[in-house]
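User: quick one
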Amino acid sequence: MADNQSTPVISADGLIKQFGRFAALRGVSAEFSASKLYVVLGDNGAGKTTLLRIIAGLAHPTRGTVSVLGSKEIKDVRAQIGYMAHPSLLYDEMTGMENLRYFAELYEIPAGGVEQRCRDAITSVKLDPDLDRPVGQYSQGMRQRMSLARALLNDPKLLLLDEPFSNVDARSAAEMAALVAQARDRGKSVFVVTHQPAQLEGYADEFIWMEAGRIVNRTTSLQVAAR
Amino acid sequence: MSFLAIARATLAKDVRLEWRSKDAINAMLFFSLLVVVIFSFAFDPTAEESRRIAGGLVWVAFLFAAIVALNQTWARELRNQVLDAYRVSPAPATPLFIAKALGNFLFVGVLEVLMTPLFVMFYKLRPLGLGWELVPVALLGTWALVVNGTFFAAMSLRTRAREIMLPLLLFPLSIPALLGMVNATTAILTGEESPAFWIALLVAYDVVFTTACLLLFETVLEAE
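Assistant: Done. Structure below.
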């Protein structure tokens, strides 16, 4: 387990991912430290989401290895990972609380603490836990926040976020960026894939620039990375 | 890992979603109703003929109708990619499969309870054998349909033509079970022979395929 900052929270070694003849990742080797906020940038098809899905254990590399929170078996550390994808990963027909109560069962949150944990997760993203409306009727911004609440529900050590600011207005995006930074400030390692890196400028510890399935640059400033 | 708690929560969630949308149950009921009405117009069997054909008719109607529920089960997990939320969680695969199969069993069971009186009425059915023996046949037969159906619906989840793929995969494999259900039902309705052999076949089928599905489901769930 990555229980101190010297152990990399994610360690990728020669990751290659092929989809038929298309190589989404072409040898990604990198290490990422604990309690930092990383922002992954790149054009469409650069391999950002594929890298994130491999780290989350949702995709398997064709070649190479990845170690997450000190384990090469991602299954073993799933309880410590929070994952937010581009789609909401929520049931549209259920309310926010109903969704989170169900996911709380999957993370074996003790029955006595489920209600409070769900309410805390929802209020932490500035939504009302008593909102008696199915998620399908939420605005896009609210849905994104509820999706972030779901990712935070298990109090993960590693938070993986894929396009958290897409289709949300500027104000909501700024609020979400602040929430993401707060998660890092509370000691979580955060890995954000986004096309809107400017939202995290001033918060991010490092920008990771990907191109054609490779990491081509790592900088502490967005301007330098863009160059 | 609390296997039962996860299975129970997943089943409760599926029942709640179905209760709110009624997608599967409405489509199944409508389809079965059509089969009953159209066949009753197409044929005008005597009571004796009814006893001989009803087993096949009822089970084929339920099999086709069940396809709707089976496809719907996983379709709702694909919307917003919610299945990925399960896959990234530490929850094991088996409770998900058990809950889905039990949910389908429940939905198809509700359909059978609602449709059976209509079949009896339209086809003037009165069993000459022991009527209560229809209960284990219904339970075992329904489980045979839904356990494989749930598994193959999950397998065809990522294929483009999944609604076509499911019957293509499921029907050939269901032939032994269908034989058991139809022959057991006919034996009970006509009272001419004991359904014991066919019921034993259904038990064996259920045990073998439930075990195989449970063993293989994690591989299906983890596949990209």
